[in-house]
Write a structure and sequence with these properties.
2 domains; alpha+beta; elongated; three-stranded antiparallel beta sheet; 6 helices
């Protein structure tokens, strides 16, 4: 079916394709909610029409309008690396506080941003300096980092 957009589909095939019941497909066809036509008393659906209709039902941004890059424009590799190193230094500074057993990841996320924080944490986990986990705080599991026990 995927190779031939002009192929006609039955209500059973459309139901399977859309992961809904056949009754739902029939109701939509009878209410003109989905592109369909009758041939000899049976509903038929053109594959290309179903794909277009499905796209018209989408909410949120179109796939093509989503940003190709997550980092801000003009954010060079040098700036990115400097930001990651600054975040690592921030984590290492926190690790020096022997009175704490863990640190909230969200504090780092707020200060350094998600991409930078995640990369810094990944590097420090790989270097066996920290571990990640969760702590229950006020009945909520919160992401944390902890000193790696030796």
């Amino acid at each position: 079916m995927q190779g031939n957009d002009d192929a006609l589909m039955t209500k059973e095939e459309v139901a399977k394709y859309l992961n809904v019941t056949e009754r739902t497909v029939l109701d939509w066809a009878q209410k003109d909610s989905i592109p369909a036509f009758k041939i000899g008393g049976s509903w038929r659906f053109r594959h290309a029409d179903i794909i277009k209709w499905l796209e018209s039902q989408r909410t949120g941004p179109a796939v093509t309008s989503m940003p190709a890059q997550v980092e801000p424009a003009g954010f060079s590799a040098i700036e990115r690396e400097a930001s990651i190193r600054a975040c690592i230094e921030d984590i290492e500074f926190r690790l020096q506080d022997s009175s704490e057993h863990f640190w909230l990841t969200r504090d780092l996320l707020r200060k350094h941003g998600e991409l930078i924080t995640n990369e810094a944490i990944s590097r420090m986990v790989a270097a066996r300096k920290i571990v990640t986990g969760f702590e229950k705080i006020f009945e909520e599991n919160i992401a944390v980092i902890k000193r790696r026990s030796t």
